[in-house]
Amino acid sequence: MDHRHPKRVEDYTTANLVLIFINLLWIFGVIWAQFGLMAVILSGWVLNYGVTRLAQYKASRAIQWPRKSDA
């Protein structure tokens, strides 16, 4: 068996963040055209709330169950 180290992969974080931004723009544009500005504001607030709750959940899980590498 050949023991070769895996090669480094490129970091696509910036590209993914740009694509998320572009997708949010067109989705908010469609919501605005169909339902109005208040629906865009409300959906943005809901997304922000959901991301905040997810971050809180992940932080609480990290505190409760530390990984073996952390110990």
From TrEMBL:
It comes from the Bacteria. GO terms for molecular function: transaminase activity. Keywords: Aminotransferase, Membrane, Transferase, Transmembrane, Transmembrane helix. The chain crosses the membrane at residues 20-47. This is Histidinol phosphate aminotransferase.
